[in-house]
Amino acid sequence: MTRGGAESRIPTLEELKRKGMLEQLEYLRRMEDLYRAQAKEGDVSALGRYIFGFPNDDFHDELARALREETNAILALPPRVGKTQTVIHFCLSEIAKNPDIRILYVSAADDMATLVSQSIRMCIESDERYRELFPHVKPDKRRGWSDGEWFVKREKPLKDPTFTALGKGGSVLSRGADLLIADDLISQPDEVATAYQRDKLSDWFNKVFLSRAEPQSRVFVVAARWASDDISGRLEREMLANGKPKYKVIRFPAVAETPEGKKYLWENQRPAEYWEAKR
Question: Which pTM was predicted?
Fold first, then answer.
């Protein structure tokens, strides 16, 4: 008997399960509210979790912090670990913070750059959560809303698009940029198999891509390493030669040796067998 005369009863397994589910749902709701608040304040990882449900790992958070806090950086990661998705979250956050921003995004080919442009554009135009968080970010379809370049509404009458997307080797005429992102300019090893190919890409990177930067612009090279003298390698070597650390270099190895043993990148999505097969 319980106090007050009511008969005591052991809850059923179904009731315990239901209670556990309710507690879990309440926890998820609290976390969602937290991600929403953090995304609104400019947290790139929280934006990815809240809007895209992206399964961030610790290294994604570190990557996002580097994009948000560094001026110029070389971010070296292996393929297929969500680096481009993190770049998408970063661009959406930067546009919300400053709709006057001009972003130049370059990838290995036009179609790859177009997919990223479409993802960002569609989120701005139709994602309910993004629009609720950042109602001031609105498409400016009168000025342009195509895959290659598009505008959001701004206070300043700037001529350059909010976002320009193209493949490596493309032409960027009369465009200035506040944020320049080179994301996986090389998609497979045979694109940099010869010194001629590497020299040609380096020449375009320095003479065309970097020529769009202003004195206060930020430049990010986000890439897997394919050769010792690929774009990332050459930039690092130039810094060592002239003693000027223009870029911060952050590496995220696929497999790291630690005192506790091997640590695999994004292990909850890419198990040890995945990485070991690629070694």
Answer: 0.89
